[in-house]
Design a protein that fits this description.
disordered C terminus, 33% strand, single chain, binds manganese (II) ion
Length: 224
């Protein structure tokens, strides 16, 4: 049960009754995280903090910055908020066995007044303030693709100044926490390095991404 009906009937600026949610100043600092996860298949786990948990969707192809691309996002089980900092190796035989990278992290803001109602209605609009992903996005429920276990949604970038045709999953393959690739994380965590490496961009692509970053850093430094 959500609190939307309770909240709709009350003006919490006027009544001393509790709103039952996080205080307004915390709402503006809700975290989001995207964990690149190579288990049986490569996917990106997209998680939004809400009501003390992380709402979670598995996005097989990862996010696209193009507003004309819709990326399938399967709703999966909620995760604890602390999971947002998990990066490492899940041992063989365990659920989700494989390598996990914190691919992007930041805060998010709903663009609609009632998140619980939006989730129920199947259209959640929000703004991301991450290191890689920024600007306006939407998750739209698409019942047609849903299975019995998971409901299917589409993750779509809205057209704004952060929309782009470049492939950010290839251009920015590194962890935002540790600047490691999947293979590095597997090596450090005693995982399957070869398998993890299959989820990283090809070596020359990674080198190029790295040197592009280095070039833009030095270009910035050169600016007066
Ligand atoms: Mn996963």
């Amino acid at each position: 049960m959500s609190l939307s009906e309770y909240r709709k009937k009350r003006n919490f600026r006027v009544t001393p009754e509790p709103s039952g949610g996080p205080p307004a100043e915390e709402i503006s600092r809700l975290i989001f995280v995207i964990q690149k996860h190579l288990s049986s298949h490569l996917h990106y786990d997209f998680r939004l903090e809400w009501n003390g948990i992380l709402l979670s969707w598995a996005v097989p192809k990862g996010p696209s910055l193009s507003s004309s691309v819709k990326r399938l996002a399967m709703r999966v089980e909620d995760h604890p908020v602390e999971y947002a900092n998990f990066e490492g190796v899940i041992p063989e035989g365990e659920y989700g066995a494989g390598t996990v990278m914190v691919w992007d992290k930041g805060t998010w803001e709903p663009e609609i007044p009632d998140v619980d109602a939006a989730l129920k209605e199947g259209e959640l609009k929000f703004t991301l303030l991450g290191k890689k992903l920024k600007g306006s996005w939407v998750l739209v429920h698409t019942p047609g693709y849903s299975s019995t276990r998971h409901s299917a949604w589409l993750l779509i970038k809205h057209e704004d100044r952060y929309a782009s045709k470049r492939d950010i999953t290839l251009d920015e393959p590194y962890s935002v926490l540790t600047h490691r690739l999947l293979a590095d994380i597997a090596r450090d965590g005693g995982g399957d390095v070869k398998k993890a490496a299959s989820g990283d961009p090809s070596a020359d692509r990674a080198v190029r991404a790295s040197s592009t970053k280095a070039a833009s850093v030095s270009a910035r430094k050169r600016q007066p």
